[in-house]
């Protein structure tokens, strides 16, 4: 069957992020600057610019600690500075590494959220 006869155009891809403590994760992502577009008791849709993801009130340690997201931004250093200036370590338990130039021609840093989800925040170099 010829695949060109189907409309396979994609619109977007959104990930479901687990939350160990839903209220803590809501507060964490809001503090980072994400906007809540929609929320119910067990699920929330966050957005920042063209980036969207679902935060789910569901947690499995193995799932959370094996989830990795790549957020491609215009300036990873600006993002890193923004996160550091928020002083979130006083409120949340999370990991933030320093930005590094990578062999794959990106500059990135790692942010691990309070549930253990790893984000690589990067820009092209």
Automatic annotation (TrEMBL):
It holds the Pfam family Glyoxalase. Gene3D superfamilies: 2,3-Dihydroxybiphenyl 1,2-Dioxygenase, domain 1 (3.10.180.10). Residues 10-124 form the VOC domain. It comes from the Bacteria. PROSITE patterns: VOC (PS51819). This is VOC family protein. InterPro entries: Glyas_Bleomycin-R_OHBP_Dase, Glyas_Fos-R_dOase_dom, VOC_core.
């Amino acid at each position: 069957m010829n695949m060109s006869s189907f409309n396979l155009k994609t619109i977007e891809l959104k990930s479901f992020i687990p939350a160990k403590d839903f209220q803590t994760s809501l507060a964490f992502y809001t503090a980072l600057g994400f906007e809540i577009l929609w929320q119910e008791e067990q699920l929330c849709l966050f957005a920042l610019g063209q980036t969207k993801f679902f935060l789910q009130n569901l947690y499995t340690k193995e799932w959370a600690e094996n989830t990795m997201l790549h957020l491609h931004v215009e300036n990873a250093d600006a993002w890193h500075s923004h996160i550091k200036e928020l002083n979130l370590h006083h409120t949340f338990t999370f990991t933030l590494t320093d930005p590094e130039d990578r062999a794959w021609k990106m500059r990135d840093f790692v942010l691990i959220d309070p549930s253990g989800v790893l984000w690589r925040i990067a820009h092209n170099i």
